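Input.
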Amino acid sequence: MSFCHSGTANYLYQHPSGYFFRYRIPQDLKAVVGKTEFRYSLRTGIFRIARYRARLIAGYVQALFNKVRTDMEKFTPEKITRLVQDYIRETLANDEMCRAKSLPTLEGKTILESSSMKSDEARSLLISVDRWLKNQDHSLMHLVAERIMKEQGEEADPESEAYKVLSRELLKAFKGILNVRIKRSEGDYSESDEDLMPILKQQRYSHIEEQRRPKAHKFLEVQEHYLNEVEKREGWTEKTRAENLSIFALFVRVMGDLPVNAIDRQLMSEFKETLMKLPPNLNKLSKFKDKSIAQILAMKHDQTISVNTINKYLRRLSGLFNYAVQHGYMANNPAEGMQIKQQKRPDEEREAYTKEDLHKLFHSEEYRNGTHKQSYGFWTPLIALYSGCRLEEICQLHLEDIRQEQGVWVFDINDKEEKRLKTLSSRRLVPTHPKLIELGLLEHVEKLKAKGETRLFPELSQRRDGYGQTVSKWFARYKKRCGIEEGKNFHSFRHTFITHLKHKQVDPFMIHELDGHAIDSQTMGRYGKRYTPDILLREAVGKIDYGVDLKFVKNSKNILP
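Output.
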C-alpha cells in the first residue's frame, strides 16, 4: 500500500518497493496528454534522494504543462481542423491536376500532396496507414506538419503537442484521401468530396463557431488593463504597485502567460502548491537570479514562503481575477476561497505587548537618560501606544494635524497633500491621550512651528514605502536591544491599544472609530454618525492606563529633531 510522505509535496509517495512520483494531469490537459496522471518509480528508498528527484520531475512537468497550454492557445482544435481541411482540399485538387496532365505527381510535391496513383497502390498504402494509426506512428506526415506550421509563422517543434496532434490529424486525413483516390482512380465521381470526407462539412460549422467565439485574453494583457483601471480609479502606492507586479510576474513565471479563461481552480491549486515549496525573497537573492522554477524547487531550502505571504499573493491575484470576471474575460474567480486557513484567530496573529514588555521599551537607557538621537525615537512609540495609529499614519503627520476639535486635542488622520491612508475608513479623529500632553507633545509642536517646520517629524523623508520605513528599521533594532521577543514589532502597539480597550469593555463601534477599521454593520456604518471627540476621549481613550510609570521621561533632552 502506498501513501503520501508526511510533510512533503503530494506528488511523492512511498511504496514497500521504494518511492515513486505521481502527478495528476490537469483537467484541461487530460484529452491532449491522453492520461489522467503521470506515475514513475524514483528507484530509491532514501527519502532525501527521492524528494530531490521528485522536485526535478515536478518542475519539468509543470514547465511541460505550460508549454502545452501555450501550444493549445496557438493551435485550437478548431484551427487544427481548418488547417487539415485546407490540406485535404489542396491535395484533392492536386490529384485532379495530376490526372488531367497524366502525371504521377506534380513537380515539387510528394504523393502525400499530389498523386494519380492507381486503386491497388492506394489500397496497399491504406493498409500501412491503418497500422501506423494503430501504433501511433505519425512520422509519415511530419514533413507536411512542419510545412503547415511554418506557413502559420510558428516553430515546428517535434516535441510540442500541437505538432503531434496536427501530425496525427493529417495522417487520419490522408487515410480519407486514399479512399477518395481509390474511388477516383476507378472513375467513380458519384459522391462529392464532402460526402466522402465528412470532416469538410464539420469544418465549415466549426470555422463559423470559432469566428463567433470571444477572443482569449492572456494574463499579461488583462494585467495591463487592470493596472490602467486602478490608476484611473484611485491608484496604488509605489510599494503596493511594486508588490503586485512582483506577484503577477511570479505567477507568469510559474504557470506561464495563460489565457485567463483557461485558469481554473485546479491551476490555482497547482500554483499554491508551488508557492508552498518556494523560498522567501525569491526575487531579492542573487542565488536564484538565473535559475528556473524547476531548478529552484530542486534546491534544498531552510525556509519556505510563509502562510501569510502565500495568502497575500492569492488575495492580490484574486483582485485581478475579480476585475477579469467583471469585464467578461473569464467566467469566475479561480482564486476565490483558495487561501490557506490559519490555525490562529485573527486577534492572535500579532501579539500585544505585555506590561513587562512596555517596561523594557520605556525604561531603556534612551528614555531614562534622554539620549534619543532623533525625535521620532522618542515620540513614535508613545503616540502609537496611546493612539493606536498605524506607523505610517504617525510618521506622515503634519503639525496642523494636531489640533483642537470641539475643545479636545486630536490627531487628524487624513490623506491630504502627500499623505496616504490604508482605506477610506482610516480617515478619523483620534483624541490625544492626556499622557502625551503631560509628556510635552503640544510644547514640542509649538517649538517645531517656531522653527518654521510643517511636519511633526521633519527628519523623516518620504520613500517608496512612505515616511515610516526609517522608523520601522530603527524600531526593529531598538526592541531587540530591549530584549523583546520575536513576533512583536511596531504594529504590536496598535494591537496593544485595541486589546486594552476591549479589556476595558469599551464599545466595539468606538474601538473601530479609533482604529480606523470599517464598521461591520450596515445600520451603524451607513446611517450612524461618528462619535464626537469628547465622547471618544471620555469613554475610550481616557480610560487607557497601562500601569507603566512614564513620569521620568518628561525631561528628555532630545525632544526636538
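Strands lie at 3-4, 12-15, 18-24, 37-41, 402-405, 408-413, 428-431.
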